[in-house]
Structures are given as structure tokens and as C-alpha cells.
Amino acid sequence: MQIKAKQIAQLINGSIVGDPEVVIHGPSKIEEAQKGTITFLANPKYKEYLYTTEASIVLVDKTLQTERQVTPTLIQVDNVYLALSTLMELFGSKISIHSGIALTSIVDISAKIGKHTHIDDYVIIKPDVTIGNNTKIYGHVFIGDKVTIGDDVILYPGVKIYHNCKIGNRCVIHANTVIGSDGFGFAKDENGNYKKIPQTGNVVIEDDVEIGSNTVIDRASIGSTVISQGVKLDNLIQVAHNVHIGNRTAIAAQTGIAGSTTIGEDCIIGGQVGIVGHIQIADGAMIQAQSGIGSSVRSPKSKLYGTPAIEYSNYLKSYAHFRNLPDIVHQLRSLEKKVNELENNKTE
Asked: Using CA atoms, how far apart are residues 23 and 15, in angstroms rounded to an integer?
């Protein structure tokens, strides 16, 4: 497709500095851009590329100040990433999907399928499933008994949804994610052998949730594991049984959350964070990547880092001392030696 700068500016509510008639056909990275493409500048460390890029159009923040002449047309916006999100929908490529219900799919006669919903090849839909309108289900998806799926949902290839789970409206679940697998529940018998505790609950995923590839969300032992409205989960995340994640919380890849933990609203959790079970994390908490959370976080908007995690600024101060620990130990030993020498001189 081709689109002019003035059309883009209108779409994203931006202001043009330069030629409004310049035409682009696609996006590019600012350091690799070619003529006829659009790029963006959101991180100040890439600012030098603004003066050398060959892109025809660059999205920039309204507060950006240029120090010398810029060749491309600039489109100034309030929020570069938000504007970019809107713009990229024009250029985004989609996986092709069978129109209607593919002949190779297996859909139980009792399943209720909404209007304009597409079911691709080799999908399996079990009894008493309900699927809303305008939903896309890609190949090799498995949907278990009595699952409920809302409107405008996208299930990418290989997603598995176990029985009785509920998926809200406008959710996106990426390839090979598993929803509703058994929670990790076992008890030892009198002989020391593990006996499985039946996991009788389900998973409830509310509206506008997006879940990355290869993430696993376990069903509750009793009740529901709940992923609340607007939550964003990255790839390779483990959510254990009976966890509750609050509205609009975002969690990066390889994080593991143990059972019966409650995470508040609007939290931001970095990659490879480990969270123990049966604790509460307050609203707005920010947890740095690779941190370990071993106890409840009671204060809203806490910033935590480290294992076990402590307050973020305290961690940075502590780490600054830790890096200098060999020198500090050397100084302490030198001082100890001098003190001992002074003490010996006093006794002589």
C-alpha cells in the first residue's frame, strides 16, 4: 500500500513539519531506513540517526528539539509508541485463515458458533462449547468441553484450552499456549508416594487480555484462576493454580507465579521474576527483571529489585557497595591492622 504524510498525520492526530505530500509504502528501522519508508524516534539515544536516516517520514515526539537540518518529513505526536501502534495496523501482515468452518476441523454438534467466526484446519471443538461472533481460531487449536469464548477473540495455531475455561471478548492468545492445565497439586500417602489432588476449578480470562506464545495458565484446584481485564502476558510465563492477576497488569517473559498468589492492578513485572505462592502484591508494583519475591508487597506502587527483592533505590545503593566489596574488605583489614598496631604500642 501507499499513503501520504498528510493522511498519516490525520490518522494519528499529528502535526507535519516538511512535505505533506511525500508518499511511503511501508515501515522501517531508523538506522536501516530507505527512501519511501516511515520510521520513528522514541528513544533519545537514537537521535543522531534522525540526521542521517534515508526514511521519507519520521514519527517524533512534539517536544523534540532539532539541532540541525533534517531531511525527512517529521510527524509530531504526543505519544510516539501509541501513534506507531495505530499506524502499524495498516502494514501488519496476517496469517491466512479458512473462511467459515474448515472441512478438516472437528466441531461437536452441540457447539454454538457465533456469526462471522472462522475455524481453520484441524481444529477440535468438544461438546457444549460456546464461541462468540467475529472470532478467529487458527489451525490445530483444541477447545475442551463446556469452554466459553467471547466475541472478536483470536486463538493462534496450537492453542489448547481445557474444559470449563472461560475466555472473554477481544482476547488474543498466541501459539502453543495452554489454558487450564492441572495445577501442581500432590499429597504424600502413608508410603511416601505422591497422590494427585484433583484440580476441579477452571481458568477465567476476562476481556482485552493478550497472552504470548508458550505460556501456561493452570486451572484452580477449587474455584478459578483469574486473569483480569486488560492484562498483558508475554511468552513463556507460568501462572499456577488459583492465581489472580489484577486489571491491566503487564508481565514479561519467563516469569513464574506460584499458586494462590494475588497480583494487584496496573503492576509491571519484568522478565524472569519468581514469585512464591500464597502472597499478595499491591496495586501498581514495579518489579525489576530477575527479581525474587518471597513475601507480600503491601505498599502500592512499590519498586522492587533483587533476590530476595528489596526497594529499588536501596538495591542500587547496596549493589554499588557490593561491587566494591573487595576494596572495602581490603580497607577494613588495613584499618584493623593499624588498630592492632596502636593497641600493641600502648601495652608496651
From this structure: 16
